[in-house]
Amino acid sequence: MVTKLNGNNYKKKRKSESYHIRDKIEEIIKEENIDRSKFHEVSKYSYERILRKFYYTFFEYDKNVRYTEPQKIELSYAWLNFRKDLEMSETIQVCYDDIDIDVIKSLVPDYSDEKVCFVIVAEGWVYEGEISEILKIFPCEIGIMTDYYIISKKLDWVVVNCEDGECVCRMELKKGTSR
Rounded to 5 degrees, what angle do the CA atoms 72, 86, 102 make? Predict the structure, then answer.
């Protein structure tokens, strides 16, 4: 027996946790009148490339196994598997009811409002934008998100938000470290 999805079932299915996050971010973009040239979801054609570069740059994975299929990249709790050779900043505890944006700014090397970075949420959505616009969206969303990562476009550092641990930190490639 084949079950057809009617309009109501489709809407329920689409409102999975992953899509809920994406929809919420879209709501905030509209509510805050954020210029999409300064913050936007990246092209679906770029997702895989950006996710893989991020994953293989910062996380432990089995380098000695040859895979016939590309590994599925799982970002939930990925912060538990950062490479051991990365430099880690001090971990900063945050109170999500009253987050201090300056805490996140302090973790961004050479901070400027116009600095363009990627943002990846644990549910897999990838965004690109100026730090000033990123910080308009993500502190608002902390209550519903699991984890997110603000990443330099050069992939040499990442600011990590760990929702479970209520903390943020920066992980950075050591000078001279290859990816």
Answer: 95
